[in-house]
């Protein structure tokens, strides 16, 4: 996944900042990872809602039709995965992955249990919704752990993440 390449390039920088005890740089880099995750996932969600049925039609030569809300919930689950992966960048860079594993195991196990129970009375869309909510729970729990680790206020993170990544667009402009 393209996003994982971006997160992987930030991890060594965060590890160096951690070694230098530069918590401000760690916060900025982790905020950038979270910002990238948010904006990419929103763009991907919008793009897939518009182009997804057409892509599936071509890819499967018309053998599989996109079913809503199943498709939307599956894409929402992928957004959750992208969001928690971005938010976990500082934790992963500093070898705090054990906590991530525990959070993921508990959240996804609970989600699978609920999805299995729901499978008997709900549609596939309902099952996909439960799994998407599990991914979003993982995101919230990892966000809380990351914020505690970085001693960062949510308002600071929110300001940085919600700001459009216009500086990244400068990379695509042609040099004069």
Describe the structure.
The structure is a single chain. With 176 residues, this protein is mainly α. The chain has one domain. The protein has 8 helices and no strands. The protein has helices spanning 2-19, 23-59, 70-87, 89-93, 97-119, 124-150, 154-162, 166-169. Helix 2 (23-59) runs antiparallel to helix 3 (70-87) and helix 3 (70-87) packs parallel to helix 6 (124-150). The protein starts with a helix and ends in a 7-residue tail after the last helix. The mean pLDDT is 87.
What are the SSEs and their pairings?
Layout: H1 2-19, H2 23-59, H3 70-87, H4 89-93, H5 97-119, H6 124-150, H7 154-162, H8 166-169
Helix pairs in contact: 1-2, 2-3, 2-7, 3-6, 5-6
Q: Secondary-structure element sequence?
A: HHHHHHHH
Separation, N- and C-terminal Cα atoms: 32 Å
Q: What is the total domain count?
A: 1
Extract low-pLDDT stretches.
Answer: none
How much helical structure, as a percent, in the residues? over 70%
Q: What's the mean pLDDT score?
A: 87
Overall number of strands: 0
Radius of gyration: 18 Å
**Number of discrete helical segments:** 8
**Beta-sheet strand percentage?**
under 5%
Overall form = globular
What's the main sheet like? none
Helix/strand-derived class?
mainly alpha
Features:
single chain; 176 residues; mainly alpha; 8 helices
Summary, kept brief:
With 176 residues, the protein is mainly α.
């Amino acid at each position: 996944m393209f996003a994982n390449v971006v997160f992987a390039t930030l991890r060594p920088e965060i590890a160096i900042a951690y070694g230098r005890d530069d918590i401000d740089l760690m916060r900025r880099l982790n905020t950038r990872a979270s910002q990238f995750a948010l904006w990419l996932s929103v763009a991907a969600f919008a793009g897939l809602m518009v182009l997804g049925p057409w892509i599936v039609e071509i890819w499967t030569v018309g053998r599989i039709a996109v079913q809503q809300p199943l498709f939307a919930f599956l894409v929402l689950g992928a957004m959750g995965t992208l969001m928690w992966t971005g938010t976990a960048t500082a934790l992963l860079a500093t070898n705090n992955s054990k906590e991530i594993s525990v959070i993921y195991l508990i959240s996804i196990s609970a989600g699978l249990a609920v999805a299995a129970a729901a499978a008997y009375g709900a549609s596939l869309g309902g099952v996909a919704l439960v799994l998407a909510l599990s991914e979003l729970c993982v995101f919230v729990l990892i966000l809380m752990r990351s914020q505690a680790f970085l001693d960062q206020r949510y308002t600071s993170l929110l300001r940085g993440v919600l700001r459009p990544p216009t500086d990244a667009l400068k990379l695509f402009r042609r040099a004069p």
